[in-house]
Amino acid sequence: AITGTSKGIxxxxxxxxxxxxxTVVSINRPEFDLNDTIAVQSxxxxxxxxxxxxxxxxxxxxxxFNDMTQSDIISQVNVNLLSPMLxxxxxxxxxxxxxxxxITSGCINDLKKSTATYFTTKSGLSCFTKxxxxxxxxxxxxxxxxxxRIKTNFxxxxxxxxLYNNDYILDVNEVSKVILFIIDNPYITNITVKDPRR
Length: 198
Prior knowledge:
Layout: E1 2-3, H1 8-19, E2 26-27, H2 37-40, E3 50-53, H3 70-94, E4 98-103, H4 116-136, E5 140-147, E6 150-151, H5 154-158, E7 170-171, H6 172-184, E8 190-193
């Protein structure tokens, strides 16, 4: 199961998995709204081998924290952190074993101004990945992928493109290749994806 397969990393990963013969369950709006944390708790993840928490957004990023709307703050927390935690909880309670892959962000190691909520939620997801692994490592594998500078329209939607330039940007297909590599190699628990020149 993959959240956020309508574009970007999620779409590329779904395409790659389907191409090689895997069955993929997509968790996307409008059927599944990750901002609705009550509805998220009813998503059936039984009989699934791998959960990829990929969906995320940065509405309000590029603004100082005091200029953000409270609805954007709440939505980022719900989509970027709370929903992945709830989905992981369901996944480990509906299955006996499996792999959870959480997509965080290179921003957790490179804090920039006007990213307070996004930085906080992605840092929280990173910490959660480490913490839940301590509880469940006997039967589940938890992997954090830290993508740096990925070529999507992600920052354009938030009007935060001025925080970044176009140097050293990876294609999403390179990230999906790494995800497949992780799926096929059970000893990987953490990996950073970035342009080797940077």
